[in-house]
Design brief:
Elements (H helix, E strand, L loop, with lengths): L4 H9 L18 E5 L2 E3 L2 E4 L4 E6 L6 E3 L5 E2 L10 E5 L4 E6 L9 E6 L13 E4 L6 H7 L5 E4 L2 E3 L3 E3 L5 E4 L5 E4 L6 E5 L5 E3 L2 E3 L4 E5 L5 E3 L2 E3 L4 E5 L5 E3 L2 E3 L3 E6 L2 E6 L2 E3 L7 E6 L2 E6 L2 E3 L3 E6 L1 E7 L2 E3 L4 E5 L3 E7 L7 E2 L20 H7 L2
Parallel strand pairs: 1-4, 3-9, 10-11, 11-14, 12-15, 13-16, 14-17, 15-18, 16-19, 17-20, 18-21, 19-22, 20-23, 21-24, 22-25, 23-26, 24-27, 25-28, 26-29, 27-30, 28-31, 29-32, 30-33, 31-34, 32-35, 34-36
Antiparallel strand pairs: 1-2, 4-7, 5-6, 5-8, 8-9
Protein backbone atom coordinates (compact mmCIF):
# COMPACT_ATOMS: atom_id res chain seq x y z
CA UNK A 1 0.00 0.00 0.00
CA UNK A 2 1.19 3.50 -0.79
CA UNK A 3 2.35 5.56 2.21
CA UNK A 4 2.26 9.36 2.16
CA UNK A 5 3.62 10.51 5.51
CA UNK A 6 3.68 14.18 4.56
CA UNK A 7 0.05 14.17 3.49
CA UNK A 8 -0.96 12.35 6.66
CA UNK A 9 0.80 14.91 8.81
CA UNK A 10 -1.20 17.66 7.09
CA UNK A 11 -4.44 15.68 7.43
CA UNK A 12 -4.01 15.26 11.17
CA UNK A 13 -2.60 18.71 11.87
CA UNK A 14 -6.05 20.29 11.94
CA UNK A 15 -7.08 17.89 14.68
CA UNK A 16 -4.34 18.75 17.16
CA UNK A 17 -5.00 21.44 19.76
CA UNK A 18 -2.90 22.99 22.47
CA UNK A 19 -3.20 21.63 25.99
CA UNK A 20 -6.53 22.54 27.61
CA UNK A 21 -6.20 24.07 31.07
CA UNK A 22 -8.10 22.47 33.92
CA UNK A 23 -9.72 25.82 34.71
CA UNK A 24 -12.08 25.57 31.75
CA UNK A 25 -15.81 24.92 32.11
CA UNK A 26 -17.13 21.58 33.31
CA UNK A 27 -17.32 18.80 30.68
CA UNK A 28 -20.23 18.21 28.36
CA UNK A 29 -21.41 14.76 27.36
CA UNK A 30 -23.79 13.80 24.52
CA UNK A 31 -27.43 14.48 25.40
CA UNK A 32 -26.43 16.81 28.24
CA UNK A 33 -26.44 20.59 27.79
CA UNK A 34 -25.13 23.27 30.11
CA UNK A 35 -27.01 26.58 30.16
CA UNK A 36 -24.63 29.50 30.47
CA UNK A 37 -24.52 33.29 30.06
CA UNK A 38 -25.62 33.53 27.29
CA UNK A 39 -25.29 30.30 25.31
CA UNK A 40 -26.13 26.60 25.32
CA UNK A 41 -23.12 24.31 25.62
CA UNK A 42 -23.12 22.40 23.31
CA UNK A 43 -25.38 24.31 20.97
CA UNK A 44 -26.21 21.15 18.99
CA UNK A 45 -26.85 17.64 20.29
CA UNK A 46 -27.94 14.48 18.52
CA UNK A 47 -29.89 11.74 20.30
CA UNK A 48 -31.81 8.63 19.23
CA UNK A 49 -35.59 8.64 18.99
CA UNK A 50 -36.87 8.04 22.51
CA UNK A 51 -33.75 9.61 24.01
CA UNK A 52 -33.61 12.44 26.49
CA UNK A 53 -31.91 15.81 26.58
CA UNK A 54 -31.04 17.19 30.00
CA UNK A 55 -30.26 20.86 30.57
CA UNK A 56 -28.49 22.10 33.70
CA UNK A 57 -28.23 25.80 34.41
CA UNK A 58 -24.70 26.88 35.31
CA UNK A 59 -25.20 30.63 35.04
CA UNK A 60 -28.79 31.79 35.36
CA UNK A 61 -31.51 32.82 34.83
CA UNK A 62 -32.75 31.61 31.49
CA UNK A 63 -35.59 29.82 29.82
CA UNK A 64 -35.45 26.79 27.56
CA UNK A 65 -38.19 27.29 25.01
CA UNK A 66 -38.91 25.30 21.86
CA UNK A 67 -39.43 27.46 18.78
CA UNK A 68 -42.67 25.57 18.06
CA UNK A 69 -43.84 25.80 21.69
CA UNK A 70 -43.72 22.08 22.53
CA UNK A 71 -41.75 22.81 25.70
CA UNK A 72 -41.12 25.96 27.70
CA UNK A 73 -39.09 25.61 30.88
CA UNK A 74 -39.87 26.70 33.55
CA UNK A 75 -43.15 28.05 32.14
CA UNK A 76 -43.14 31.24 34.17
CA UNK A 77 -40.10 33.06 35.44
CA UNK A 78 -36.63 31.70 34.76
CA UNK A 79 -34.47 28.73 35.65
CA UNK A 80 -31.80 29.52 38.22
CA UNK A 81 -28.27 28.22 38.56
CA UNK A 82 -28.26 24.61 39.74
CA UNK A 83 -31.68 23.73 38.32
CA UNK A 84 -32.08 20.95 35.73
CA UNK A 85 -34.88 20.01 33.33
CA UNK A 86 -35.29 17.20 30.80
CA UNK A 87 -37.20 16.55 27.60
CA UNK A 88 -37.80 13.16 25.96
CA UNK A 89 -37.83 12.96 22.16
CA UNK A 90 -40.25 10.86 20.12
CA UNK A 91 -39.68 10.37 16.39
CA UNK A 92 -36.97 11.56 14.01
CA UNK A 93 -36.96 15.32 13.72
CA UNK A 94 -35.02 18.51 14.40
CA UNK A 95 -36.12 20.61 17.36
CA UNK A 96 -34.94 24.22 17.59
CA UNK A 97 -35.09 26.08 20.87
CA UNK A 98 -33.99 29.34 22.47
CA UNK A 99 -33.90 31.39 25.64
CA UNK A 100 -36.74 33.89 25.64
CA UNK A 101 -34.56 36.47 27.34
CA UNK A 102 -31.40 36.05 25.29
CA UNK A 103 -32.42 34.44 22.01
CA UNK A 104 -31.83 37.71 20.23
CA UNK A 105 -28.23 37.57 21.45
CA UNK A 106 -27.71 34.18 19.81
CA UNK A 107 -28.75 31.95 22.71
CA UNK A 108 -30.28 29.25 20.52
CA UNK A 109 -29.89 25.48 20.28
CA UNK A 110 -30.76 22.46 18.14
CA UNK A 111 -31.65 18.86 18.92
CA UNK A 112 -31.22 16.32 16.14
CA UNK A 113 -33.39 13.29 16.89
CA UNK A 114 -32.52 10.15 14.96
CA UNK A 115 -32.10 11.04 11.29
CA UNK A 116 -33.40 14.53 11.89
CA UNK A 117 -36.27 13.95 9.49
CA UNK A 118 -39.53 15.71 10.27
CA UNK A 119 -42.93 14.30 9.48
CA UNK A 120 -43.67 11.92 6.57
CA UNK A 121 -41.08 10.56 4.11
CA UNK A 122 -39.73 13.14 1.66
CA UNK A 123 -41.70 13.84 -1.49
CA UNK A 124 -40.56 11.99 -4.62
CA UNK A 125 -39.03 15.20 -5.91
CA UNK A 126 -36.79 15.24 -2.84
CA UNK A 127 -35.35 11.79 -3.56
CA UNK A 128 -32.48 11.87 -6.05
CA UNK A 129 -31.29 8.60 -7.58
CA UNK A 130 -27.71 7.88 -8.65
CA UNK A 131 -26.96 6.89 -11.38
CA UNK A 132 -30.52 6.48 -12.72
CA UNK A 133 -31.29 10.22 -12.59
CA UNK A 134 -27.87 11.76 -11.91
CA UNK A 135 -24.62 10.31 -13.23
CA UNK A 136 -22.62 11.09 -10.10
CA UNK A 137 -23.23 11.57 -6.39
CA UNK A 138 -21.73 15.04 -6.68
CA UNK A 139 -24.25 16.02 -9.34
CA UNK A 140 -27.14 14.80 -7.19
CA UNK A 141 -25.87 16.63 -4.11
CA UNK A 142 -25.47 19.84 -6.14
CA UNK A 143 -29.09 19.56 -7.26
CA UNK A 144 -30.46 18.65 -3.84
CA UNK A 145 -32.33 21.06 -1.63
CA UNK A 146 -32.53 21.03 2.15
CA UNK A 147 -33.90 17.72 3.44
CA UNK A 148 -33.30 15.79 0.21
CA UNK A 149 -32.27 12.13 0.16
CA UNK A 150 -29.61 11.01 -2.31
CA UNK A 151 -29.96 7.29 -2.95
CA UNK A 152 -26.91 5.65 -4.50
CA UNK A 153 -27.02 2.31 -6.31
CA UNK A 154 -24.27 -0.28 -6.05
CA UNK A 155 -21.08 0.57 -7.89
CA UNK A 156 -17.71 2.28 -7.64
CA UNK A 157 -17.76 6.08 -7.64
CA UNK A 158 -14.51 7.95 -8.35
CA UNK A 159 -15.58 11.08 -6.53
CA UNK A 160 -14.92 13.59 -3.77
CA UNK A 161 -18.26 15.11 -2.73
CA UNK A 162 -18.72 18.30 -0.71
CA UNK A 163 -22.08 18.89 1.01
CA UNK A 164 -23.01 22.49 1.81
CA UNK A 165 -26.81 22.12 1.88
CA UNK A 166 -28.35 21.36 5.30
CA UNK A 167 -29.98 18.03 6.19
CA UNK A 168 -28.85 16.02 3.19
CA UNK A 169 -29.01 12.22 3.45
CA UNK A 170 -26.60 10.15 1.32
CA UNK A 171 -27.60 6.51 1.43
CA UNK A 172 -26.39 3.38 -0.36
CA UNK A 173 -29.26 1.20 -1.53
CA UNK A 174 -29.86 -2.08 -3.32
CA UNK A 175 -27.84 -5.26 -3.38
CA UNK A 176 -24.07 -4.94 -3.49
CA UNK A 177 -21.56 -2.39 -2.28
CA UNK A 178 -21.49 1.35 -2.84
CA UNK A 179 -17.81 2.28 -2.87
CA UNK A 180 -16.26 5.75 -3.07
CA UNK A 181 -12.77 5.37 -4.58
CA UNK A 182 -10.06 7.94 -3.89
CA UNK A 183 -7.13 6.24 -5.65
CA UNK A 184 -4.81 8.23 -3.35
CA UNK A 185 -5.58 11.32 -5.43
CA UNK A 186 -8.61 12.84 -3.70
CA UNK A 187 -8.93 14.36 -0.24
CA UNK A 188 -12.13 12.77 1.12
CA UNK A 189 -15.09 10.80 -0.17
CA UNK A 190 -17.76 12.97 1.50
CA UNK A 191 -17.11 16.25 3.31
CA UNK A 192 -20.08 17.69 5.18
CA UNK A 193 -19.92 21.41 5.93
CA UNK A 194 -23.64 22.00 6.61
CA UNK A 195 -25.70 20.88 9.56
CA UNK A 196 -27.53 17.59 9.79
CA UNK A 197 -25.62 15.52 7.22
CA UNK A 198 -26.53 11.81 7.28
CA UNK A 199 -24.34 9.23 5.55
CA UNK A 200 -25.11 5.52 5.65
CA UNK A 201 -24.53 2.32 3.74
CA UNK A 202 -21.45 3.38 1.75
CA UNK A 203 -17.69 2.73 1.80
CA UNK A 204 -14.69 5.00 1.27
CA UNK A 205 -11.28 3.69 0.37
CA UNK A 206 -7.84 5.09 -0.45
CA UNK A 207 -8.43 8.80 0.21
CA UNK A 208 -5.62 11.14 1.19
CA UNK A 209 -7.30 13.20 3.93
CA UNK A 210 -10.11 11.04 5.33
CA UNK A 211 -12.84 8.71 4.24
CA UNK A 212 -15.62 10.90 5.66
CA UNK A 213 -15.39 14.41 7.13
CA UNK A 214 -18.11 15.92 9.36
CA UNK A 215 -17.54 19.62 9.99
CA UNK A 216 -21.15 20.79 10.29
CA UNK A 217 -23.21 20.29 13.45
CA UNK A 218 -25.39 17.25 14.06
CA UNK A 219 -23.79 14.83 11.58
CA UNK A 220 -24.77 11.15 11.65
CA UNK A 221 -22.37 8.62 10.10
CA UNK A 222 -23.68 5.07 10.40
CA UNK A 223 -23.29 1.67 8.77
CA UNK A 224 -20.35 2.85 6.68
CA UNK A 225 -16.92 1.38 6.00
CA UNK A 226 -13.58 3.10 5.50
CA UNK A 227 -10.57 1.15 4.25
CA UNK A 228 -6.93 2.06 3.59
CA UNK A 229 -7.25 5.82 3.90
CA UNK A 230 -4.11 7.86 4.53
CA UNK A 231 -5.92 9.85 7.24
CA UNK A 232 -8.87 8.96 9.51
CA UNK A 233 -11.73 6.78 8.35
CA UNK A 234 -13.98 9.46 9.86
CA UNK A 235 -12.85 12.88 11.05
CA UNK A 236 -15.56 14.71 12.98
CA UNK A 237 -15.19 18.22 14.35
CA UNK A 238 -18.80 19.47 14.19
CA UNK A 239 -20.75 19.47 17.47
CA UNK A 240 -23.17 16.65 18.13
CA UNK A 241 -21.61 14.20 15.64
CA UNK A 242 -22.50 10.52 15.96
CA UNK A 243 -20.50 7.66 14.41
CA UNK A 244 -21.97 4.20 14.91
CA UNK A 245 -22.21 0.62 13.64
CA UNK A 246 -19.39 1.16 11.17
CA UNK A 247 -16.21 -0.65 10.15
CA UNK A 248 -12.74 0.84 9.79
CA UNK A 249 -9.80 -1.15 8.43
CA UNK A 250 -6.16 -0.19 7.88
CA UNK A 251 -6.62 3.59 8.12
CA UNK A 252 -4.11 5.92 9.76
CA UNK A 253 -6.82 6.54 12.39
CA UNK A 254 -10.14 4.72 12.55
CA UNK A 255 -12.22 7.55 14.07
CA UNK A 256 -10.78 10.96 14.95
CA UNK A 257 -12.76 13.64 16.81
CA UNK A 258 -11.61 17.04 17.96
CA UNK A 259 -12.35 20.72 18.51
CA UNK A 260 -16.13 20.17 18.66
CA UNK A 261 -18.57 19.35 21.45
CA UNK A 262 -20.65 16.28 22.24
CA UNK A 263 -19.42 13.30 20.18
CA UNK A 264 -20.93 9.81 20.40
CA UNK A 265 -18.89 6.88 18.98
CA UNK A 266 -20.80 3.65 19.45
CA UNK A 267 -20.62 0.02 18.29
CA UNK A 268 -17.90 0.47 15.68
CA UNK A 269 -15.20 -2.02 14.70
CA UNK A 270 -11.66 -0.81 14.06
CA UNK A 271 -8.71 -2.92 12.91
CA UNK A 272 -5.18 -1.69 12.40
CA UNK A 273 -2.38 -2.21 9.93
CA UNK A 274 -2.69 1.16 8.23
CA UNK A 275 -0.13 3.97 7.92
CA UNK A 276 1.16 5.60 11.07
CA UNK A 277 0.13 6.67 13.58
CA UNK A 278 -2.25 3.64 13.26
CA UNK A 279 -4.73 4.57 15.99
CA UNK A 280 -8.16 3.06 16.59
CA UNK A 281 -10.05 5.99 18.11
CA UNK A 282 -8.45 9.36 18.83
CA UNK A 283 -10.15 12.19 20.75
CA UNK A 284 -7.94 15.27 20.54
CA UNK A 285 -9.12 18.44 22.24
CA UNK A 286 -12.68 17.12 22.30
CA UNK A 287 -15.27 18.15 24.87
CA UNK A 288 -17.94 15.68 25.78
CA UNK A 289 -16.92 12.62 23.74
CA UNK A 290 -18.16 9.12 24.53
CA UNK A 291 -16.73 5.93 23.03
CA UNK A 292 -18.77 2.89 24.01
CA UNK A 293 -19.28 -0.63 22.67
CA UNK A 294 -16.49 -0.33 20.11
CA UNK A 295 -14.08 -3.13 19.20
CA UNK A 296 -10.50 -2.05 18.48
CA UNK A 297 -7.82 -4.59 17.56
CA UNK A 298 -4.36 -4.72 16.05
CA UNK A 299 -3.52 -1.01 16.04
CA UNK A 300 -0.39 0.67 17.45
CA UNK A 301 -2.57 2.66 19.88
CA UNK A 302 -6.13 1.57 20.60
CA UNK A 303 -8.07 4.47 22.16
CA UNK A 304 -6.17 7.73 22.70
CA UNK A 305 -7.24 10.91 24.50
CA UNK A 306 -5.13 14.05 24.20
CA UNK A 307 -6.15 17.37 25.77
CA UNK A 308 -9.62 16.03 26.52
CA UNK A 309 -12.42 17.48 28.62
CA UNK A 310 -15.26 15.20 29.67
CA UNK A 311 -14.14 12.24 27.54
CA UNK A 312 -15.26 8.70 28.38
CA UNK A 313 -14.07 5.40 26.93
CA UNK A 314 -16.38 2.88 28.55
CA UNK A 315 -17.37 -0.69 27.71
CA UNK A 316 -15.15 -1.09 24.67
CA UNK A 317 -13.09 -4.13 23.71
CA UNK A 318 -9.52 -3.00 23.08
CA UNK A 319 -6.70 -5.51 22.64
CA UNK A 320 -3.64 -6.47 20.64
CA UNK A 321 -2.16 -2.99 20.28
CA UNK A 322 1.58 -2.95 19.60
CA UNK A 323 2.24 0.14 21.80
CA UNK A 324 -0.76 0.49 24.12
CA UNK A 325 -4.47 -0.30 24.12
CA UNK A 326 -5.34 2.86 26.08
CA UNK A 327 -3.33 6.08 26.10
CA UNK A 328 -3.81 9.52 27.65
CA UNK A 329 -1.46 12.48 27.74
CA UNK A 330 -2.82 13.73 31.08
CA UNK A 331 -3.84 17.12 29.66
CA UNK A 332 -7.46 18.02 30.34
CA UNK A 333 -10.07 17.19 32.95
CA UNK A 334 -12.70 14.55 33.62
CA UNK A 335 -11.22 11.90 31.35
CA UNK A 336 -12.29 8.37 32.21
CA UNK A 337 -11.43 4.87 30.98
CA UNK A 338 -13.53 1.99 32.33
CA UNK A 339 -14.30 -1.62 31.40
CA UNK A 340 -12.35 -1.67 28.14
CA UNK A 341 -11.41 -5.33 28.08
CA UNK A 342 -10.04 -7.84 30.58
CA UNK A 343 -6.48 -6.45 30.78
CA UNK A 344 -5.81 -3.61 28.35
CA UNK A 345 -2.26 -2.28 28.17
CA UNK A 346 -1.84 1.40 28.97
CA UNK A 347 0.51 4.28 28.34
CA UNK A 348 1.48 5.93 30.59
CA UNK A 349 1.78 2.94 32.91
CA UNK A 350 0.19 4.96 35.72
CA UNK A 351 -3.12 5.19 33.86
CA UNK A 352 -5.75 4.65 36.52
CA UNK A 353 -8.35 1.90 36.33
CA UNK A 354 -11.95 2.45 37.39
CA UNK A 355 -15.11 0.35 37.24
CA UNK A 356 -17.38 3.17 36.10
CA UNK A 357 -17.40 6.79 34.99
CA UNK A 358 -19.99 8.11 37.40
CA UNK A 359 -18.79 11.44 38.66
CA UNK A 360 -15.62 13.38 37.92
CA UNK A 361 -12.46 11.49 37.07
CA UNK A 362 -8.98 12.51 36.06
CA UNK A 363 -6.65 9.69 35.08
CA UNK A 364 -3.10 9.59 33.84
CA UNK A 365 -0.23 12.04 34.06
CA UNK A 366 1.38 14.31 31.46
CA UNK A 367 3.45 12.03 29.29
CA UNK A 368 5.19 13.36 26.16
CA UNK A 369 5.65 9.88 24.74
CA UNK A 370 1.95 9.73 23.90
CA UNK A 371 2.44 12.59 21.45
CA UNK A 372 5.66 10.97 20.25
CA UNK A 373 3.79 7.78 19.43
CA UNK A 374 1.32 9.84 17.38
CA UNK A 375 4.05 11.44 15.30
CA UNK A 376 4.34 10.04 11.79
Amino acid sequence: MIRRAGVLAVALAGLVLAAVPATMAAPVVPGVVEVRNNFFDPQTVRIDAGGTVRWTVVDGGHTITADDGRFDFPGTGTLAAGESVSWAAAGDEIVRYHCKLHGGEGMIGSIFVGDGGAGPPPAPSSVLWVPAEYPTVGAAVAAAREGSVVKVAAGVYDEAVEVTTPRIVIEGVGAGAVVFEGRYRRAAAITGRAEGLVVRGVSARRYLDAGFVAEGPGALIEDVAAVENEGPGVRATGPGAVVRRSTFERNAVGIAVGTGLGFDLVDNTVTGGGPRPDVGIWADGARGARAAGNTVAGTRLGIVVTSGIGVEAVGNSVAGSSVADLAYDGLGVDVCFADNGPSPTTEPVTLAATSSCNGPHAVGVPHPLVRLFLTV
